Amino acid sequence: MTMRAEAHEALLDAKAKYEAEGYVVSLSERLPKPFEAFTADAIARRGDDIVVVEVKSANINDWPRERLEELTDILRAECGWRLDIITYERETSPPVPDLNLARRRVREAQQLAEKSPDAASLLLWSAVEGALLAEADKREVSPARTLPPRSLVKQLTMDGVLSDNQGSELRDFAIRRDAIAHGMPADPPAPEQFDWLCRFVIAAATGRHADLHDMVEWFRANYSLPEDAGVPYVSDLDRYLWDGNGPCDAEEVLRDQFEDALDADIRDAVQIIERDGTEWARRHRS
């Protein structure tokens, strides 16, 4: 996992501290079920004491802080593990792209798509790159320098900003963009790819971008198995009495909630979710 230099230094300091206390520490380890969509910065183990270590900027905003607090509660309840959040001070704040400009360029690219596909592709990539950099800044993984399109996509996929499927789609579009920018022939993106790229930018610009982990996490926070939601089961009828609270289908729910998601990511998220069950109830909010 690629990190800012100061974040990596903070992680190594935490690793050394835990090792000095007798823990065995592994870096960038994927968590076990039901958290397999999440990769921890580090996991420290000493006997039955297991600590998930996450490194975050000291100026972390309220949205990820709430998510980390929720993860703390779930880890404790499900596994008996602890979560240790290590903070660091960011040395500089890289400039954040203007997302209003990104949205405007999406509209202009859509208007140009039929008349000049090459011009539309260049304009749309500008919007995509702005959305990517804004999302990287929000997640505290902004590149330290300007990267070529494909290198940017590769880094943000490694950083977890993009799913593998999103990274693949964006790499394909970056190759087309590079060919056009360097005077080489290139086929225009397929209409469905162009449409997804536009929706991707709009979702990122409005704070609704989600990767595979985000979708799985959101679903588990809002839906549960019927027995966990208190849905009564009638053994004589061999079925649940849903009373308007289900049954909910994970794929339908995710498609309604994440309109910018790729079909491949939806399928992967559903596969993870349905390891626990195929019928779901909405969680009651207190």
Task: Characterise the protein shown here.
This protein is α+β, with helices and mostly antiparallel strands and 286 residues long. Helix 3 (99-112) packs antiparallel against helix 7, helix 5 runs antiparallel to helix 6 and helix 9 packs across helix 10 (263-273). Strands 1-2-3-4 form a 4-stranded mixed sheet, with helices on both faces. Strands 5-8 form a two-stranded antiparallel sheet. Strands 6-7 form a two-stranded antiparallel sheet. It is flat, with a radius of gyration of 21 Å. It folds into 3 domains: 5-88, 3-Layer(aba) Sandwich (Trna Endonuclease, Chain: A, domain 1); 99-205, Up-down Bundle (Four Helix Bundle (Hemerythrin (Met), subunit A)), CATH 1.20.120; 212-282, no CATH class. A hairpin with an 8-residue loop joins strand 1 (24-30) and strand 2. It has 10 helices and 8 strands.
